[in-house]
Amino acid sequence: MNKASVIQWLQIFAAEIEQNKEYLTELDAAIGDADHGINMDRGFKKVASQLPSLADKDISTILKTVSMTLISTVGGASGPLYGTFFLRASTAVADKEELTTEDLSKLLKTGLEGVIQRGKAQLGDKTMVDVLSPVVDNFQYIDKNKNIVETMQQVVSVAEQAMKDTIPLLAKKGRASYLGDRSIGHQDPGATSTYLMLKSLLAALA
Question: Domain tally for the chain?
């Protein structure tokens, strides 16, 4: 995966967020502040506008710029959490011009660690961690002979199931946790946007 693919990934993700803005906001209206789609769309529109100027930068610099943009433009919990994800991910791929499957695994793992540290959420708390965590685990068991596209196809399938698996969970973090049992039966918006991020990564690779 070269830096052009990384930029394409972020462009596709920005388009996915725009396309799903109302759906994400609808999910968030059920258990949150009804602003996840709106906030994410604002942040990724800004990211998309900056991507052309990053074409000659290394992958770490691209991800770090995404992080700073999101932190400064996205409100709610998603700005700091996605900002932290991309910032920590940037440290895992310092000075890289292209990424192997192993680099990608490290990028996601380091990003997940940042999100856990920042949001204090664990697996089962009904957050984006519920998608990222099984995805990172899955990378460890993937046949190293598979190419990066086959690997991501498997990972996206894990992410989709993990996203759906947030529906029966009781929310233990953020605004949704105030609802108690009423948070059960709703898909988590952060888990959903995380799935879209991984789906976009597969699209860029394929």
Answer: 1
